[in-house]
Amino acid sequence: VPANALPPFWSTFRQTYLPKDGTPLSTARCQTCHVNAAGGARNVYGKLIEATLKAEKATVLTAAILKKTESVDSDEDGWTNGAEIAAVMLPGDPNSHPNGEPPATPAAQVSTTPGRSSGSPLLPPHSFHPIIVHFPIALFMFGCILEVLGAWKGRTELCTAGYFNVLIGSLSAPVAATTGFIMVFRRGYPIEGLVLAHLTLALASTAGMLATAYLGRSAARAGRERASRLYWFLLVASAVLVAVAGHLGGMLVYGS
Ligand code: HEC
User: Fold this and answer.
1) Ligand 1: distance of its center to the CA of 108 in Å?
2) Which residue has a Cα nearest atom 30 of ligand 1?
3) Whose CA is nearest to atom 13 of ligand 1?
4) Average pLDDT of each block of 10 consecutive residues along the chain (256 residues)?
5) Ligand 1 pocket: which of 6, 31, 59 to mutate (most atoms within 8 A of CB)
6) Do residues 87 and 149 lie in contact, with contact meaning Cβ atoms separated by under 8 Å?
7) Are 171 and 187 in contact (CB under 8 A)?
8) What ligand 1 atom has the least distance to the C-alpha of 59?
9) Is the CB of 39 under 6 A from ligand 1?
10) Exposed end of the chain (fewer CB within 10 Å): N or C?
11) Atom in ligand 1 nearest the alpha carbon of residue 61
């Protein structure tokens, strides 16, 4: 029923660009803008259309609104939406674009929201966040596993190795969080829903990880046993928090 209520989006798109039958664009139909053929969740191009509709306070898609999104490169494959649609390729799929090198100038405006910062080859819009996050996630969680395993088997060398992973993992967490904030602001993500949950958990786990590392460090300095009750609690809680934060981050990138 909802699908039947909204075919004007595709009709308007088709009437505006008249893609030839059998081309990737005409075959994709609803998936030009949606992740699935039935509609619902929007892909990057669909999100841009939605943001543009909101910005124009419009409920009906028009050719003029579609034209406004042409200079943006929603899927960040180097080709603007306009160039991809003209070549009957999909503006929301980075694997679908014309053959050859994308035109160098004018630089494509890489953004999911109109008017936000564009990327540069040195600092892409993701600001390396998706790469750096794996350091705190992997190191801290692996460190936690080693510490638990070491305590369980009574092997101190495992605990020591675990603690160094915990330490480096914690120190990389603020770096990951900072790139995350830069990415949110550069890409103009609205701080709500999944993004808000991810940010909150990321900050909580960063605080937890740093506290764990600090506790371990100060115990070692004072010549005390590292593994106090509070240390174990912080260690396991932070590992769980960073796992959940990472999972939500993954949902933001790959969809649920
Ligand atoms: C040009 C891009 C575009 C195309 C093509 C398109 N849609 Fe959409 N669709 C959107 C946008 C943008 C929204 C959100 C509209 C809004 O918020 O006002 C939407 C909303 C919907 C919704 C409402 C559900 C929700 O999550 O809000 C359904 C269902 C839907 N589309 C189904 C379809 C189907 C089925 C097709 C193919 C016949 C289709 N759409 C083609 C862009 C498109």
Assistant:
1) 25
2) 39
3) 50
4) 61 90 91 90 94 88 91 91 93 91 59 49 73 95 96 93 96 95 82 90 97 93 85 96 94 75
5) 6
6) no
7) no
8) 18
9) yes
10) N
11) 1
Distance CA 105, CA 234 (A): 52
Residues in the chain: 256
Interval between CA 120 and ligand 1 midpoint (Å): 31
Written as six digits, the tokens of 176 are: 């990951």
188 CB contacts (<8 Å, ≥6 apart)?
111, 112, 113, 116, 117
Give the burial string for 44-83 (b: 16+ CB within 10 Å, else e). Answer: bbbbbbebbbeeeeeeebeeebbebbeebbbbbbbbbbbb
Q: How far is CA 207 from the centre of its chain?
A: 21
Under a CB-based contact definition with an 8 Å cutoff, are residues 67 and 31 in contact?
no
Neighbours of 201 (CB within 10 A): 20
Ligand 1, atom 41, residue with closest C-alpha: 30
Supply φ then ψ for residue 37, to 5 degrees: -65, -25
Q: Locate 107 and state its tokens.
A: 């630089």
Cα 49–110–202 angle (5° rounding)? 90
**Closest ligand 1 atom, residue 39 Cα:** 32
Tokens representing residue 70 in the block = 């042409």
CA-nearest residue for atom 14, ligand 1, is 50
